[in-house]
Fold this protein.
Amino acid sequence: MTHVEYAEHGLLGVLTPQANTTVEPEMAILTPPGWGVLNARLTSDKPTIHARLVDYFDHYGDALTQFANAPLTAAGFACTGASYLAGVRREDETLTTLTERLGAPVVTAATAVLDSLAALGAKKIALVSPYDEALDDASVAYWTARGLDVVARFSAFRQSDAFHPIYSLAASASQEGVEKVKGSGAEAIVMLGTGMPTLRAIADAPLDGPPLLSCMFSLAWRLMNAPTEASLRAMLADTGWRARLAAIDGKG
């Protein structure tokens, strides 16, 4: 591997929706020393969230060129909504093409979640999302098409005058949603949407209950690890990222 200062373990490329305020902070918390992260932006001038998601996916290949010839270990698209609207077949074809072009793994947040669920052997899932009704329904259709059984779901979406109804959510929104789907019989609970803060909920979750995952947690794990149960459970139990989160909260 080409030597990159501050990135002895690997250099990760992350592509983030243009107004998303959560991806970079959560990646900084989840990546330990020795991992470098380059961020690039998915941009669109479309007038609605749904239209922008479609536009993002249509230009995934162009967006990846922002990293030029940086020696990336892996690259990830930190956007789940675009996967739902693109559909399973197109997503898989696109990722295969981009992986061949980059010469390193390219994943989406959605496929990273799939890898984490497969590592756990979890088929029955409960979903907590920040989505409006239409995107929430598209989400369920996507996970079902991927062979999963959605046994419960909760949307924390609230129409807002804030700059973006998803990115302006507080961490308490994901925590509230998790409480709503507990007891559903799910083998894992997945918090969706890379813009909804999720790390406090995961940090506080009991390790003896159904695994609590999120799109960002799964993406960070998948970019740094082979998709094994051991590597996922080690990251869920890791104290390093919890300490970095506590430092931000003023508890470290």
Q: What stands out?
A: DSSP finds twelve helices and eight strands in the chain. The chain has a mean pLDDT of 91. The CA atoms of residues 32 and 240 lie 7 Å apart.
